[in-house]
Amino acid sequence: MQITRLDLRRFRRFDEVSLAPHSGLNLITGENGAGKTSLLEAMHLMAYGRSFRGRVRDGLLKDGATDLEVFVEWRERVSSGDPASVRVRKAGLRHSGQDWTGRLDGEHVAQLGDLCAALAVVSFEPGSHALVTGSAENRRRYLDWGLFHVEHEFMPLWRRYARALKQRNALLKSGRIRDGLEAWERELAEAGEPLSRRRQLYLEALQDTMAPLLDRIAPGLGRIDLEYQPGWRRDAMPLEDALLLARERDLQAGYTSVGPHRGDWRIQFPGLPGREALSRGQAKLTALAAILGQAAHHAHARGAWPVIALDDLGSELDRAHQGRVLEWLAESAAQVFITGTEPPVGMVDLDLDVSMFHVEHGRVRDGAPLPRP
Ligand SMILES: Nc1ncnc2c1ncn2[C@@H]1O[C@H](COP(=O)(O)OP(=O)(O)OP(=O)(O)O)[C@@H](O)[C@H]1O
């Protein structure tokens, strides 16, 4: 996947701005507050239906404006037929007041999820170490995003599970346990068991891409093990039994305490002394390996790389670590966006082909070429 055009209107500080990125590495520089992150945020918004700067979509609309627009055009390889054939796709998103509307390839989309399914972007930003050190929700969302893009059957399963969970929780809250609680528990189990299995298999596959990647970019961290936690004692009993067993407690609490919605996964570092206390830089490298490993898995499973967006890559990583990450990125066939107030120091050491952009005064222009090593 390669984004060939990004247009923003009345988005954050931009009145109207356009970016025509290239394949491979794109570096976007600019002073603090110039709007570099906002450019990546707009791509992320199109690909996820939300910003990476929190759940709330408020604040995206330029001060004083009544609507915003994001337009993305990209090229992707057509999976069947001639391997060299590509198609151009276009997606638009408009937000006015409370309403969001989307268009994909000239057609109105019924739900923003259709845009998310079409455009695959993985984002890494200074808060991404939450994937390692933050709440389980970050890690579940990460797994589910990957599965959503590589397995068509995952989304219907996930929706079925979410619906049954909502129903069971509503019954628990109202105390009306005779109104079909058992049927909803069966439904939860029927959707939750395969959902959980898919997550586990996906995590096992990720271990194969992530472990060598982390070993390459941060060799000091040693071996890793990804450990899946299903959200109930799956080794001891099926989900339906676990729900039955938790029923009394759940009635008291008014919500469902077991199931894949409480699942999690962990990265273990068996060889690392003090492994519970990764430094911020180490946590950042680990989260970066998780995100890039997911991109590599996506490329393997789908035959095309997602777009990789790395906000402020240089911060908290020393020169050598930056260099290793950049070399890996340059060897991949992915389109990559990197932002920074300056070119990352690790980039200057390498003889890489980088397209340069500079954001200033609400505009994007071509940036100065990198100094050669
Ligand atoms: N809704 C809005 N309307 C107008 N300006 C906004 C809005 N939201 C954010 N801004 C401005 O946009 C800028 C933030 O942009 P962004 O975070 O993309 O900058 P950046 O170049 O990534 O900065 P840094 O290098 O400091 O991370 C700030 O100057 C902020 O005041």
TrEMBL record:
<dbReference type="InterPro" id="IPR027417">
    <property type="entry name" value="P-loop_NTPase"/>
</dbReference>
<keyword id="KW-0547">Nucleotide-binding</keyword>
<dbReference type="GO" id="GO:0000731">
    <property type="term" value="P:DNA synthesis involved in DNA repair"/>
</dbReference>
<keyword id="KW-0067">ATP-binding</keyword>
<dbReference type="GO" id="GO:0003697">
    <property type="term" value="F:single-stranded DNA binding"/>
</dbReference>
<dbReference type="GO" id="GO:0006302">
    <property type="term" value="P:double-strand break repair"/>
</dbReference>
<dbReference type="InterPro" id="IPR003395">
    <property type="entry name" value="RecF/RecN/SMC_N"/>
</dbReference>
<feature type="binding site">
    <location>
        <begin position="30"/>
        <end position="37"/>
    </location>
    <ligand>
        <name>ATP</name>
    </ligand>
</feature>
<keyword id="KW-0234">DNA repair</keyword>
<keyword id="KW-0227">DNA damage</keyword>
<feature type="domain" description="RecF/RecN/SMC N-terminal">
    <location>
        <begin position="3"/>
        <end position="343"/>
    </location>
</feature>
<dbReference type="GO" id="GO:0009432">
    <property type="term" value="P:SOS response"/>
</dbReference>
<protein>
    <recommendedName>
        <fullName>DNA replication and repair protein RecF</fullName>
    </recommendedName>
</protein>
<keyword id="KW-0238">DNA-binding</keyword>
<dbReference type="InterPro" id="IPR042174">
    <property type="entry name" value="RecF_2"/>
</dbReference>
<dbReference type="InterPro" id="IPR001238">
    <property type="entry name" value="DNA-binding_RecF"/>
</dbReference>
<dbReference type="GO" id="GO:0006260">
    <property type="term" value="P:DNA replication"/>
</dbReference>
<comment type="similarity">
    <text>Belongs to the RecF family.</text>
</comment>
<keyword id="KW-0235">DNA replication</keyword>
<keyword id="KW-0963">Cytoplasm</keyword>
<keyword id="KW-0742">SOS response</keyword>
<comment type="function">
    <text>The RecF protein is involved in DNA metabolism; it is required for DNA replication and normal SOS inducibility. RecF binds preferentially to single-stranded, linear DNA. It also seems to bind ATP.</text>
</comment>
<dbReference type="InterPro" id="IPR018078">
    <property type="entry name" value="DNA-binding_RecF_CS"/>
</dbReference>
<dbReference type="Pfam" id="PF02463">
    <property type="entry name" value="SMC_N"/>
</dbReference>
<dbReference type="GO" id="GO:0005524">
    <property type="term" value="F:ATP binding"/>
</dbReference>
<dbReference type="GO" id="GO:0005737">
    <property type="term" value="C:cytoplasm"/>
</dbReference>
